[in-house]
Structures are given as C-alpha cells and as structure tokens.
Amino acid sequence: MERHKKYLTKRDHKILEFITRYRIGTNALLRDCCFEAGIGLKNVDRVLLRLVRRKLVRRSALDTGWSYYTMTRRGLGLKDNNAKTPPPLTEQTLPVVLATAKYCVANDVRRFTRDEFVQRYPAYVRPGICCSNYALRKTETGHKLELLVTDRGGAAHRIRTRVRRFIWQRKDIAPFAALMRDGKFRITVLTATPEHRWKILRRIGDSFEPVEVAAVVIPDLADLLMLRKK
C-alpha cells in the first residue's frame, strides 16, 4: 500500500479520515472540514476527482442531483492492511450516516468510531448495544456523552419508544447509570422537519429526566427519506 500513499497531501489524508469516520462525505461537508475558508465547491470537486481516479474513494450519484463519496478497500488499506471492501450504503443506512455527519460538522463534535469508543470506554460496552454513534458534547457544565439517533420518518410515539429502549438497555450498566444520574447523558434525535421535531419533543416532554432528550432538524433528511420510499 505504500505506493498508494505517494503524493497524498495532508489535506488528502484529512479527507480520507473524515470519510472513514462517517462512512460518507459530500463536497460541502468536506469543504467545511478539510479545506481552507473561501474555497469553492468546484475546487473541492477537482480534489475529490483525483482521489476517485486513484481509487481511494468512490463517487455515487443520486436522482436528487447531488453525489456523495465513500471509501474503497484500497483507501481503507492505507491504514489497515487487513481492510475489506466496505458494504455499500443502502436506502436505510444512507440517511443515518449523512444525518450524523451533518450534525457533527454543524455542531463541532466528532463521532466516535466503534474502535475508538470501545478503547476509550470499555466499561460502557455490552454485546448487542451499538458502540458507533456516540459523540462528546461540550456544555456549560462539562462534557456530555451524546447518543445520536436518526428518525426515519416514524410516528412521534415510536421515537419515544426507541428512546425508552435505548435508556433501558444502558441503565443497568454502572457507568451509564452514573452518567444518567448526573445528567451527563444526552440522546439527540435527528429529524427531517421542524414540524416533526415539535411532535417528538411534545411527545417526549421531560419524561426521561435526568437524561436529556433533544431533537435537531437535518433538512436534507426529508429528500433522502422520500427517495427511500420511491
């Protein structure tokens, strides 16, 4: 793999690290995170095209008119000699990974990869519980461990049921129980519209305190969910 590392810039490595972490990248997301201020999207596209031609990333286009980038086996192999071809994003996983990436960029937080979370918080890990959609959120009272949950368009009462299940899965894990008791665990629901955000918050209210439950609008989710239903 050493030959594939030739002529890669620090910015190239930053782009590849972002796409690896979030399983997705768009020219707008990568511009905001990996390029100097003021650069145009056409310049970003030229850099990404070079990485596509080197088969380090793969470009996929959607009927909505925009495209996204994912890692190839060769790209992952730059850091992992045992890398496997990553599974393609599906109509179910695409909205989740894109919403997560957009939220993290907009709020200046970084999603933990599964390996990072397991290494940093081994006592929080239990078989059957996802370890790859957490972030640390800085607040006025310190950091909170944040679980990111994507709403795929379900009814508000179903979101409430999901939130309850996430809490019940973790409340008998001692470190999680301590976080909840101290108000340092937050569940953030990523949803498509202000109307649905209002319905979710109305349905949930303060019923899970001291666990904070928030809902954040990710506008691009609406188009992706409509695409999934075609």
Description of the molecule:
Strand 3 (134-139) and strand 4 (142-150) form a beta hairpin. It is globular, with a radius of gyration of 19 Å. The protein has helices at 2-5, 10-22, 27-34, 41-53, 73-76, 93-107, 114-120, 156-170, 174-181, 194-204, 220-229, and strands at residues 57-61, 67-71, 134-139, 142-150, 185-191, 212-217. It is of the alpha/beta class and 230 residues long. The model has no long low-confidence stretch (mean pLDDT 91).
Structural shape: globular
Q: Which strand order spans the largest sheet, edge to edge or round the barrel?
A: 3-4-5-6
The overall pLDDT average reads 91
Cα gyration radius (Å)? 19 Å
Q: Biggest sheet, in brief?
A: 4 strands, mixed
Beta-strand share of residues:
15-25%
The share of residues in helices is 40-55%
State the main characteristics.
single chain; 230 residues; alpha/beta; four-stranded mixed beta sheet; two-stranded antiparallel sheet; 6 strands
Reconstruct the topology from this structure.
Blueprint lengths: L1 H4 L4 H13 L4 H8 L6 H13 L3 E5 L5 E5 L1 H4 L16 H15 L6 H7 L13 E6 L2 E9 L5 H15 L3 H8 L3 E7 L2 H11 L7 E6 L2 H10 L1
Parallel strand pairs: 4-5, 5-6
Antiparallel strand pairs: 1-2, 3-4
How would you summarize what this structure contains?
The protein is an alpha/beta fold. Helices cover 47% and strands 17% of the residues. Helix 3 crosses helix 4 (41-53), helix 6 (93-107) packs antiparallel against helix 11 and helix 8 packs across helix 10.
